[in-house]
Structure to design on (255 residues):
């Protein structure tokens, strides 16, 4: 974990590589969390329309992205 | 492209499908390709992995892959980068698992490819990552002027692509440089 601490310390030194990697990782994490939440909503009987409204996107967009689950 | 795969390389692909099925995953990813590679015997890749001592650390490798899968496929480097932003991935994973069950973040949201390799292998899809690995293997073989694509090219492709499998391999001393050294230097 010392490496993590090093990186945490380096986040302050404005190394673009660390910052960009963090952004990419965050995006991936958000995608995974969205998939978990959408699946859970569907299991609880939510319609695509309701899920789309919460996510602030169109029903078509959310269905296209998660429809196979 | 697939007609140029050697028997060994095809075995890795079908082995990856089996790994994915056994794990109950949505799709076949680069981790499944790596596990399938570790199963091979008497091939160029198995020779390289044995020469680098990775065959004896199979359990370690399997555990590291499982850990990354639990984190939603984030590499250790990505997890550390997020820690730099004050985001504790482990804590997020734990909370999600509390609400949605163990392994909730594993194998969700992986985009499946239904063309090309996905169509070749049947109804099970390959993730974009896994498909990219196989395409890289083809390019590596072509660049070396090897006529067919062997499992060693798949191994080399895994070491050159940023991602969970490549990171886990590097942690166990398997990099493009070390693989090329044991395979191609007399």
């Amino acid at each position: 974990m010392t490496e993590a601490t090093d990186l945490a310390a380096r986040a302050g030194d404005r190394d673009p590589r660390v910052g960009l990697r963090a952004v990419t990782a965050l995006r991936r994490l958000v995608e995974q969390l969205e998939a978990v939440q959408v699946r859970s909503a569907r299991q609880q009987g939510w319609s695509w329309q309701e899920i789309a409204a919460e996510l602030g996107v169109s029903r078509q967009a959310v269905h296209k992205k998660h429809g196979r689950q | 492209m697939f007609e140029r795969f050697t028997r060994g390389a095809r075995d890795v692909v079908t082995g990856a499908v089996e790994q994915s099925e056994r794990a109950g995953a949505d799709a076949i990813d680069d981790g499944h390709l790596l596990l399938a590679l570790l199963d091979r015997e008497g091939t160029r890749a198995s020779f390289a992995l044995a020469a680098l001592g990775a065959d004896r650390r199979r359990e370690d490798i399997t555990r590291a892959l499982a850990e990354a899968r639990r984190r939603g496929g984030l590499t250790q480097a990505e997890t550390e980068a997020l820690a730099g932003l004050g985001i504790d991935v482990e804590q997020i994973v734990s909370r999600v698992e509390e609400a949605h069950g163990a392994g909730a973040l594993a194998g969700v949201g992986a985009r499946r490819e239904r063309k090309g390799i996905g169509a070749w292998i049947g109804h099970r899809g390959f993730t974009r990552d896994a498909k990219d690995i196989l395409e890289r293997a083809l390019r590596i073989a072509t660049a070396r002027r090897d006529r067919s694509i062997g499992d060693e090219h798949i191994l080399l492709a895994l070491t050159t692509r940023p991602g969970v499998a490549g990171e886990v391999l590097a942690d166990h001393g398997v990099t493009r440089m070390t693989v090329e050294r044991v395979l191609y230097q007399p």
Summary: Chain A has a mean pLDDT of 83. The two ends of chain A are 36 Å apart (CA to CA). Chain A has one domain: 2-66.
